[in-house]
Each structure stands twice: as structure tokens, then as C-alpha cells.
Amino acid sequence: MFSIFGVIDLCISSGYRRRGIASEILDQLSALAKAKGIDFLFLVADDHRLYEKNGFRLISTDLTWLKIDEHKNYGVETERIEKELMIKQTGKKVWPDEPVDLLGYLF
Fold it and tell me: Does residue 107 register a pLDDT over 80?
């Protein structure tokens, strides 16, 4: 068992990009996660560059989650996620090499 903090839709207005704001937000989230005993920051991204630069790593894993879209529940989904899922370890636990059940929504 481990705890995760999901990062969803990190967006910086175009006029404020390239100033380190997104990296600062990720640094603050990492510090908060460490202070609160969270094991991993967790996100889904198509473009990995910003996150890799900030200590996230791309993983492939089998996930189970509650599939919700536009306030409608489509039930429990199990799928292998590749090329999108990123984590940053903020605690002492290691990401498991086995299927993970999120026990809720896929951020």
C-alpha cells in the first residue's frame, strides 16, 4: 500500500511561460508531498520534457481505476498504460512491479 498525489492539468498562461513557473509549482508540490508523507506524485502527460526535467520518470504499468467522463460512471477499467504515466518518488517506497489499483478516478 502506498499513497499518491495526482497532478492534473498543470497549465501556464502563454504570456508567462519560460519563466520557471511550472517547475516552481512542481517543486512546491514535491515539498508538500514529502512533508505530508506522500509516496509519489503521479500524472499523465503526452509531453514528458518538463516533468523529466523536474525528476519525474515515465513508467508502464497495469492500472485499475474508476472510469468517469463528463460526470458519468462507466465502471471499473483495467488497462496497461504506456508512454503517458509519470511518477516522482517523494517517499521511501518504491513503485511496485505489479498491477496497481488506484481505488478511484484516474486523475
Answer: no
Q: CA–CA separation, 80 vs 95, rounded Å? A: 15
Angle at 53 between CA 57 and CA 56, to 5 degrees: 20
Determine the Cα–Cα distance for residues 95 and 3; give it in Å rounded to an integer: 10
Per residue in 59-99, pLDDT (tens digit) is 999 999 999 999 999 999 999 999 999 999 999 999 998 99
Q: Give the C-alpha separation, 107 to 65, whole Å.
A: 10
53-81: burial string, b at 16+ Cβ within 10 Å, e else:
ebebeebebeeebeeeeeeeeeeeeeeee
CA distance 89 to 101: 18
Give the global pTM. 0.88
Quick one: which of 77, 9, 5 has its CA closest to 46?
9
Domains in the chain and their CATH numbers?
4-105 (3.40.630.30)
- Which grid coordinates are listed for 100? 496497481
